[in-house]
Amino acid sequence: MIETETWTRTNADRHAVAAGCYFDLAAAERVRTFFAKFLRHSTGEFEGQPFTLLLWEWDRVIAPLFGWKNQDGTRRFRTAYISTGKKNGKSGLISGLTLYLLLGDDEPGAEVYSAACDRTQASIIYRGSKAMVDASPLLGSRLTCIDSTKRIVGPRNSFYRALSADAKLQEGINAHAVLFDELHAQPNRNLWDTLRYAGAARRQPLMLAITSAGDGGQPSICREIYDYAKRVESGEVIDTSFLSVIFEADADDPWDSPDTWAKANPSLGVTIKLDAFRSDFQEAKESPAKENAFRRYRLNQWTSIAEGWLSLDAWDACAGTVDAEALRGRPCYAGLDLSATDDTTALVLAFPSDDGRTLLIPYFYLPGANIAKLEKKHRVPYRAWAKAGHITLTEGPVVDYVQIRRELNELSKAYDIKQLVIDRKFQGQQLESDLISDGFDVLPAGQGWISQDLPAKELEKLVISGKLAHGGHPVLRWHAGNAVVDVDKAGNYSLNKLKSRSKIDGIAATTMALFAKMRASGDPSKKLAAPGIMYI
């Protein structure tokens, strides 16, 4: 009982205890002993030395993961997300855990898998485990390493296998444990989803990800798990079966402080030398691009790889709450960015608010017949977004403009759409004519950037000042992270779809809606006051 009280640290722990869970220190110590007695480091300055767990590895990972038990004695934690900066010994920890789970977990016919983004990384993990086997006569007598298939075969029909994202998996995988190395590098969610329920028939399956931060501008399975882990860590979500261990610098932490460095690097001073870290920081000060890399890989912060336009931190701070029902009958301005087969068709309604903010309600459309192909091409979870109601899938291989026209007319019954800006691509002229006949005040948008400067700057200003509310829509967030602007010698802005990292249709539609909103407000600019075509 004393051990359980000592290791009860979070609200989730307290809920677990109330449900009959307890902490078994002897079970946790068994893992620590296995590491120290049977495993040797295989690389770096510690090569050949016993694998003595560092304080954070023991206190934050191994002890909670293997010490906490359900009432029936099985492991409490079924999923774990462990995140630190680079070079904190994550891969070595995975190698050691695969061998313990293979031999020491008392699981007959254990199937243990390590998963990586590609074959090269998968080989690195396998070689680390193999080196530990080769360095231990006892492990070598019980385990057989097969290089050609990256497998380690053990007693009682147990085996470990290294997998990559391009592996062709057979049905019937019965995983005792799956350990993902650098989950952020997975090209899509396919391997995670394939293996997620592969242990459903096991007594105490484990799904564990050990990773550093990823690309904050792109939706990914890693970002999805990270966001959930943060909610568990904060206590917003009570999930007694999910272990969250995240070492990262906060956004407002001084990035030149060794205290900040230590927050993201629990192995600082051991696997990472402070002098080397300080040298990396000095280089990062000289270049925004290097600063971006330093923040991501060293401070474990989710940053965008590409030099985008809108700060995603500022964008996320503008999520706010947008109550569609409360806005019924209110005046708004619409922007419609059309597509045919590859892009999303984006419709954005912009509502002026009494408190000076601009509220956005976005709608997105994709051709349902192409959804699997588009999801693979763009590497975003279109089907999951559609299931959650964030995207509408139209029938056939192209976006159905008839359906969009119909839905616009339905929206006009709910909201007072003062003006609709629409592009003329992809047969947009016919839709424009149809909507005019339906009674919409339509302003056509052509190709170019003559009139895009002011609404783009208005969007930037709204984001920076916190005067925008978009409800946290995930598709619009993805587009915001992708967007890049060109700036000419006169300082004029223009969205550049070719330079943007991926799709930006929602942002294009937003600037269209803002154009109409600014024009209606009596903006003195000649660009906005003049009637006729808005050039996008």
Describe the SSE topology.
Blueprint: H1 2-6, H2 11-18, E1 22-23, H3 25-38, H4 55-67, E2 68-69, E3 79-83, H5 90-103, E4 111-116, H6 119-134, H7 137-142, E5 144-146, E6 151-153, E7 159-164, E8 177-181, H8 190-196, E9 206-211, H9 221-234, E10 242-246, H10 258-264, H11 274-285, H12 288-298, H13 312-317, E11 331-337, E12 345-352, E13 358-367, H14 371-378, H15 382-387, E14 392-394, H16 401-414, E15 416-423, H17 428-437, E16 442-446, H18 453-465, E17 468-469, H19 474-482, E18 485-487, E19 493-495, H20 505-520, H21 526-529, E20 534-535
Parallel strand pairs: 3-9, 3-10, 4-7, 4-8, 8-9, 11-15, 13-14, 13-17, 15-16, 16-20
Antiparallel strand pairs: 1-2, 5-6, 6-7, 11-12, 12-13, 18-19
Distinctive features:
536 residues; alpha/beta; Rossmann fold; Nucleotidyltransferase, domain 5; 2 domains; eight-stranded mixed sheet; 21 helices
Characterization of this structure:
The protein has 536 residues and is of the alpha/beta class. It folds into 2 domains: 2-246, Rossmann fold (3-Layer(aba) Sandwich), CATH 3.40.50.300; 313-535, 2-Layer Sandwich (Nucleotidyltransferase, domain 5), CATH 3.30.420. The protein is 40% helix and 18% strand. It has an 8-stranded mixed β-sheet, sandwiched between helices. β6 and β7 form a beta hairpin. α3 (25-38) packs across α4 (55-67), α5 (90-103) packs across α6 (119-134) and α18 (453-465) packs across α20. The termini are far apart.
